[in-house]
Amino acid sequence: MQGILYEEPTIWLFLLVSVVMGGWLAWMAGRAIALTWRPSWQLVIYMLVLGLFVRFIHFALFQATLLTLHYYIVDTVVLMAVGFAGWRYTRANQMTRQYHWLFERAGPFAWKPRPGAVIKPELL
């Protein structure tokens, strides 16, 4: 897998920097965007910038290449996946907590209408 997902000598550095550290920041950014009721497309902009910071950490600490499109895309895709998961998880919590008479949980990332609830289509 070296050369496809990461350029460091071991996958543990990639997992530490991109998945654990960057993933935590991405989750928190997704959570912050959801808590302020902003749309999910704004998360894309945040993750593009966060991808640059993650590339810099790889460069500064582990002598990886700073300006490489391939690894920037890999890091950004990982960050977007975690960020959107954080956004959706938080939004599901909001919808079921703040509109508990309309919605109930349908898993960690989803909600569904309560039986008998009349809901506008834009809320679904």
Based on the model shown, name its key terms:
about 120 residues, mainly alpha, two-stranded antiparallel ribbon, 2 strands, elongated
Q: Describe the biggest sheet?
A: 2 strands, antiparallel
Our estimate of the beta-strand percent is under 5%
Q: Report the strand count.
A: 2
Shape: elongated
- Summarize the amount of helix as a percent range: 55-70%
Number of helices: 3
Order of helices and strands: HHHEE
Low-confidence region ranges: none
| Largest sheet strand order | 1-2
Structural class: mainly alpha
Output mean pLDDT. Answer: 91
Q: How widely separated are the two ends?
A: 40 Å
Rg from C-alpha positions? 18 Å
Give a brief rundown of this model.
This protein has helices spanning 11-35, 41-62, 69-98; strands at 103-105, 111-113. With 124 residues, it is mainly α. The protein has a two-stranded antiparallel ribbon with strand order 1-2.
